[in-house]
């Protein structure tokens, strides 16, 4: 029976090359899953702040948010880091390890600047404006949505930093380039989510 | 002349593994077959616990104005019963079968991510244990709480700090949240396995319907579970950080919880039934000795159901007072989903039609599944009718409906699957005699339990009520339901005895006891760690038929 069913052993290997990449499909699935997670928080924000426009005595979005250099700068940092991570991935695939490390380092710095901007904004919100999750519906929606996004940026940064360390230790040869590419997909996803967060928080009901 | 040195003792350890080695092997395994069996076994264990909780419910309701459990215990029992059966029985048993069967059926050696697979199982198990720890651990500051008592869908604002001062709701949130991470990992793993690891010749349209059902279920898990996770995180923020999501007194919205929960909840019931469709689609053809009728339509119907399951959630909320346009949309969408479901039922009937039927226990359960599921499906169409739903919403009619679907449907399919694949998993046959007794007792018991619930519901008995007044015509129907529970209990005891005794001295199964056609029967029983060597190649939907009948193979016709 087994022989009758299985007579293609010699072709196993050739066949495997035509298979879809487990890493890429797996990352795509994770991204779908995470998207639905964020969707719930975006829906909550839209529901309370944009549709119901809950007035519970707290400040309105117009009073709280404006597109200043901090928001623009943070967004530019994050969006451009999507480009630099692609340069890094391409360099790794070519075996140009020095270039890979440089681009990856720039990516991490750009991501770190984004997180720093979030810290500055939150310090202002919490310290000066007295906002927190329990102060108003807007606070609840804002801190949970932006907080979860920042948390995901931190997860991505941790992955990228580990890759940089591995590369310095000589443990990231270029035949692992696909794995780095899979990680870079996660980074693109985190950037893409920021587009939606940006529009939801800083554009709708503000302009 | 050279003399070979004699092997010294201890150089080659061939003594059978001790208990510690065996436990170690099962705890550290990343093998999809062992993890699948762990999933199924843990699920069946929780099934016993959830069943005992159901026993307390039926005991309390056996007579009017009864007082054996009391309201506090009663609330905990129905909450834990529902939560257990959905999250700790249905999902792990079905995903466990997926885990065990998918790599075998598509001709590969393991899941795409074996370590993630092991992580998923252990996270699920400890999530479940965390939920059950609430019985002793949730007293909190006020010492008032026991197990969660807010119902399995935990509506706001009942779950707010104001109304639940202990930590029982937190245990409900965290237990389900944690086991949900395991389910999401397994869902992703199944999808990646199916998309990336099929053997040579196994095109998507040659996969067994069971594999298709697991692909669809994996996608539904990926889409539905994160929304529940998000809603539960919001609830945690409400309870610990004073957030305003679901607290109406702080301009939050109890309705948002319902929308988020049911956006998860309705795909969830399809997560619980679509793998069952898969089991039945494998078992019915084998015991009818025919190919499945309308393979392509079966696949289309599965995908159709999955997509549409995301646009029907508000039929759980007709009684809330949504705008008529929304009610109309969700009612229409719910009616429409009966079409692909009907296609599946008629295709099973088409498979049976003109077949040479063999009524072994798996086939009996498959027949039971079709009959009971159709009853549950028809009451589902009744409930999708908005005016009728307004009358019986949250009554025992609803309880009867979803037990026909989830017990008569999902659990009957699980029993069919256990009887069908137990020989593959263990190399031993389950006792047919005990199996047939169990089937008929369970069929009678379940109809006796859940049939009368439709009547008590129409008579006006609300669900989740811990007692009822005499002289309202409810006594006899509740008594019948409680007697039915005892009948079912006998069947479950028979099943447990059958499992244990057949494991120890069941008849040897051989590789292919049912003369079946899918790839898992091409392996030994139980399969070797590496499943196939060399990897198989297929040319049609029934590779074993082709192997057994080289003179008339399927690929001449497909």
Describe the structure.
- The complex is a heterodimer of chains A (207) and B (558).
- Chain A is mostly helical.
- Chain A has helices spanning 2-5, 9-16, 22-51, 61-64, 69-94, 97-128, 137-168, 177-203.
- Residues 1-14 of chain A have low confidence and may be disordered.
- Chain B has helices at residues 19-27, 32-61, 70-105, 114-137, 168-196, 209-241, 254-288, 295-308, 324-336, 338-352, 361-384, 386-392, 396-426, 432-458, 475-505, 543-548.
- Helices cover 65% and strands 0% of the residues of chain B.
- In chain B, α2 (32-61) runs parallel beside α4 (114-137).
- Chain B has 558 residues and is mainly alpha-helical.
- Chain B has one domain (27-524, 535-553): Cytochrome c oxidase-like, subunit I domain (Cytochrome C Oxidase, Chain A), CATH 1.20.210.
- Chain B is globular, with a radius of gyration of 24 Å.
- At the A-B interface, α1, α2, α3 and α7 of A face α5, α6 and α16 of B.
What keywords describe this structure?
heterodimer, A: 207 residues, mainly alpha, Four Helix Bundle (Hemerythrin (Met), subunit A), 8 helices, 79% helix, B: 558 residues, Cytochrome C Oxidase, Chain A, 16 helices
Which architecture of chain B would the CATH scheme give at its second level?
Up-down Bundle
What string, H for helix and E for strand, traces the elements of chain A in order? Answer: HHHHHHHH
Q: Please give the number of β-strands of chain A.
A: 0
Shape assignment of chain B: globular
Major pleated sheet of chain A: none
Instruction: Please tell me the overall pLDDT of chain B.
Output: 94
User: Which CATH first-tier class of chain A would you pick?
Assistant: Mainly Alpha
Structural class of chain A: mainly alpha
Give the uncertain stretches of chain A in residue-range form. 1-14
Helix content of chain A: over 70%
N-end to C-end Cα span of chain B: 64 Å
CATH architecture of chain A: Up-down Bundle
Q: What's the end-to-end separation of chain A, in Å? A: 71 Å
For the record, the count of structural domains of chain B works out to: 1
What's the name of the CATH homologous superfamily of chain B? Answer: Cytochrome c oxidase-like, subunit I domain
Helix fraction of chain B, binned, reads: 55-70%
H and E string of chain B: HHHHHHHHHHHHHHHH
Q: Looking at the chains present, what oligomeric state does this protein adopt?
A: heterodimer
